[in-house]
Automatic annotation (TrEMBL), chain A:
It holds the Pfam family COX4_pro. It comes from Virgibacillus litoralis. The keyword Membrane applies. InterPro entries: Cyt_c_oxidase_su4_bacillaceae, Cyt_c_oxidase_su4_prok. Keywords: Cell membrane, Membrane, Transmembrane, Transmembrane helix. Its main location: membrane. The keyword Secreted does not apply. NCBIfam families: CoxD_Bacillus. The chain crosses the membrane at residues 26-46, 52-73, 85-106. It is found in: Cell membrane. Coiled coil: none annotated. This is Cytochrome c oxidase subunit 4.
TrEMBL record, chain B:
SUPFAM superfamilies: Cytochrome c oxidase subunit I-like (SSF81442). InterPro entries: Cyt_c_oxase-like_su1_dom, Cyt_c_oxase-like_su1_sf, Cyt_C_Oxase_1, Cyt_c_Oxase_su1_BS, Cyt_c_oxidase_su1_bac. Its EC number is 7.1.1.9. Residues 10-522 form the Cytochrome oxidase subunit I profile domain. Pfam families: COX1. Pathway: Energy metabolism; oxidative phosphorylation. It catalyses: 4 Fe(II)-[cytochrome c] + O2 + 8 H(+)(in) = 4 Fe(III)-[cytochrome c] + 2 H2O + 4 H(+)(out). PANTHER family: CYTOCHROME C OXIDASE SUBUNIT 1. The keyword Hydrolase does not apply. This is Cytochrome c oxidase subunit 1.
């Protein structure tokens, strides 16, 4: 803040950071599109058995959700501890519930 | 502003002020009035229950009416009395304790209150419109799906609307505590009541959606012909029980944790000691919340979940006794060697320890699966949960009211009346519920409207009813105290209890902007730190400047009113086509108000520096 107040130039460090950030966004975006295509292809061609398709789709979905949260919604950046805590807390509560109901039903 | 506040205003102006207020202190008043009103209703219902059970085969009320009264007593006390009263105390104290000027979303705060109030009104309108809900406060399917008339529909709509209000309130408190703590107020310097408000809000956030879903499913089954709980059409009635208790068990921690927090503050204030084991208290609270989500099936041991599931839930339940025990011992250690003042607030707090410990002990008893097969649906369970909810939450609310009355209304509740009310209520409470343990063990089932004579239940029930009358007298004395104090109570100084936390650094009652300058917090028990260093008041963290305040709004009231009208439309569209009129009109009012809120820019107003300087300190 103190130095360079008269200039509109973004400092080179910030500029490089922005560029890297943009790269990351594009890479994750491309990966997510790719995952979506893979998911559709697997189902459309019927190349896998049902036993495999469902876990594969679930894993792809979980990775996409993680990309969404961490890259597009900036959870990887600083100052997102509380939202992260709340999200994981919510996931934990939901998993517990599902695990409990699962145990009750099948054990 | 403050000049206007000191002038006498007409009734209309005051009413309009409260209808449109977004100030957390006034919303606290509203919650207390609303919760107090429903507390009286629930109390009357309790008295009718006890009068009906005063002697064998009594016919004070009919069987059907008894079911309705019993259902409404439970529902009203949990959702419309205990929770709003706690939310009121949270609203009153939490922003002051963390050094904030208001909650994060003042508009939503107001919306939360009005949704609760109109939800409660819908529920109670059922008395006048052909019968109240009669399927128990738990409304188990298929009893609730097959209950004739519209009673259970009122339950569904009323709780759905007031539940939305609670959820909004919970999220609001979360954001407030995360973002609006004063400079230096780190998480581990927050007073315990603010901590428990925080944890309670997390529980609300994660538990209430389960209730919302359950109520929606029930609503669709009853009003729109679906069959989620109808076994005959491939549904499963046990799903309701799971959904209800996935919400319901965290709910009992929502009721008790705020009480734990305010007892912690009261003990350390009146023992003149730092809370013993502050860190352990915080982590015990977190642990209770954490475990609270994995114990719901202990309400369903007799459903037939199987021995493995039952054992897991039994052990998880017993584990909760550990953090709770940590808390009890920490309170005792806080009192140990303290310079103790015993006044009304402290009496309620001291009365809480043995009472709640008895409730906790019977809690571990019912957590044992094999024993629970004996206790289930008997008066033993009734005694257990009244010991924890009355002994914990109600004692807590009354302690909190005595403690914070100076901050709430600028007056001190009469000590003498307060002590009399405590002793009568305390005696009455134990008289009513202690004997119910034994009635339960002797086999008296809960929810029955009569019992037969000469089965050893006569004397116990008579004693229980006498106790209930003593409790009623205690409550009446408390309400008399409230009126007495309002008329001729002494004006409270800013810090009547020689307090330790930030709320006692404000005026009694606080200015509508709370703190002229945001205080700088230098340790746990922020005000006490300053007192021990001889200063006695907070160091400001900022220069005096303009304060940005939100404008009041009637929209929260209108939105809730819209839902209130639409609720009747939803209920009656089953029988009458005209019911679509209130349905659409109500939803129109709701959506119209939301549209106005979205389109109209409201930037609030500023209290200027000059105005603040003019006010004397």
């Amino acid at each position: 803040m103190a130095e360079n107040t008269n200039s509109n130039e973004v400092n080179p460090y910030q500029k490089r950071k922005n560029k890297l950030e943009m790269q990351k966004q594009l890479i994750t975006f491309a990966l997510m599109i790719l995952f979506t295509i893979i998911a559709f292809v697997i189902v459309a061609t019927g190349m896998m058995q049902k036993m495999f398709v469902i876990p594969v789709l679930l894993i792809l979905a979980i990775i996409q959700v993680a990309f969404q949260f961490y890259y597009f919604m900036h959870m990887k950046d600083k100052g997102h501890d509380m939202p992260a805590l709340m999200i994981y807390g919510g996931i934990w509560a939901a998993l517990l519930t599902l695990a409990g109901l699962g145990v009750i039903t099948w054990w | 502003m403050s000049i206007a506040a000191t002038q006498k205003r007409g009734f209309g102006a005051v009413l309009w002020d409260y209808l449109t207020t977004v100030d957390h202190k006034k919303i606290a008043h509203l919650y207390l009035f609303g919760g107090g009103f429903f507390f009286i209703l629930g109390g009357l219902e309790a008295m009718i229950i006890r009068i009906q059970l005063i002697k064998p085969e009594n016919d004070f009320v009919s069987a059907g009416l008894y079911n309705e009264i019993l259902t409404m007593h439970g529902t009203t006390m949990i959702f419309l009395a205990a929770m709003p009263l706690l939310l009121g105390l949270m609203n009153a104290a939490m922003p002051l304790q963390i050094g904030a000027r208001d909650v994060a979303f003042p508009f939503l705060n107001s919306l939360g209150f009005w949704l609760f109030l109109f939800g409660g009104l819908i529920l109670n309108c059922s008395w006048l419109l052909g019968g109240a809900p009669d399927a128990g406060w738990t409304s188990y399917a298929p009893l609730s799906t097959t209950s004739p008339g519209h009673g259970v529909d009122f339950y569904v709509l009323g709780l759905q609307i007031s539940g939305a209000g609670t959820l909004i309130g919970g999220i609001n408190f979360l954001v407030t505590i995360i973002n609006m703590r004063a400079p230096g107020m780190t998480y581990m310097r927050m007073p315990l009541f603010s901590w428990t408000t925080f944890i309670t809000s997390i529980l609300i956030l994660f538990a209430f959606p389960a209730l919302t879903i359950g109520l929606f499913l029930l609503m669709f089954d009853r009003l729109f012909g679906s069959a989620f709980f109808d076994v005959g059409l491939g549904g499963n009635s046990i799903i309701w029980e799971h959904l209800f208790w996935i919400f319901g068990h965290p709910e009992v921690y929502i009721l008790i944790l705020p009480a734990f927090g305010l007892f912690s503050d009261i003990f350390s204030t009146f023992a003149k000691k730092r809370l013993f084991g502050y860190t352990a208290m915080v982590f015990a609270t977190i642990l209770i919340a954490f475990l609270g989500f994995m114990v719901w099936a202990h309400h369903m041991f007799t459903v037939g979940l199987g021995p493995v599931a039952n054992s897991i839930f039994a052990i998880a339940t017993m584990a909760i006794a550990v953090p709770t025990g940590i808390k009890i011992f920490n309170w005792l250690a806080t009192l140990w060697g303290g310079s103790i003042t015993i006044n009304s607030a402290m009496l309620w707090a001291l009365g809480f320890i043995p009472t709640f410990t008895i409730g906790g002990m019977t809690g571990v008893m019912v957590a044992s699966v094999v024993a629970d097969y004996q206790y289930h649906d008997t008066y033993f369970v009734v005694a257990h949960f009244h010991y924890v909810i009355v002994g914990g939450t109600v004692f807590g609310i009354l302690a909190g009211l005595h403690y914070w009355w100076p901050k709430l209304f600028g007056r001190i509740l009469n000590e003498k009346l307060g002590k009399i009310a405590f002793w009568i209520f305390f005696t009455g409470f134990h008289l009513t519920f202690f004997i119910q343990h034994f009635l339960g063990l002797m086999g008296m089932p809960r929810r029955y409207w009569v019992f037969l004579e000469d089965q050893g239940l006569d004397t116990g029930n008579l004693i229980s009813t006498i106790g209930a009358f003593l409790m009623a007298i205690g409550v009446i004395i408390f309400f008399y105290n409230v009126v007495y104090t309002a008329v001729k109570g002494e004006k409270a100084p800013d810090d009547p209890w020689d307090g330790r936390t930030l709320e006692w650094a404000t005026a009694s009652p606080p200015a509508h902007y709370n703190f002229k300058q945001t205080p700088l917090v230098r340790g746990l028990d922020a005000l006490w730190v300053e007192k021990t260093e001889g200063k006695g008041k907070m160091t400001p963290a900022e220069p005096l400047g303009d304060i940005h305040m939100p404008n009041g709004s009637i929209l929260p009231f209108m939105m809730s009113f819209g839902l209130f009208i639409a609720g009747f439309g939803f209920i009656y569209q089953v029988n009458y086509t005209w019911a679509y009129i209130p349905l659409f009109v109500g939803m129109g009012i709701l959506l119209g108000s939301m549209l106005i809120r979205s389109l109209k820019d409201d930037h609030g107003y500023h209290i200027t520096k000059e105005e603040l300087e003019r006010e004397a300190d």
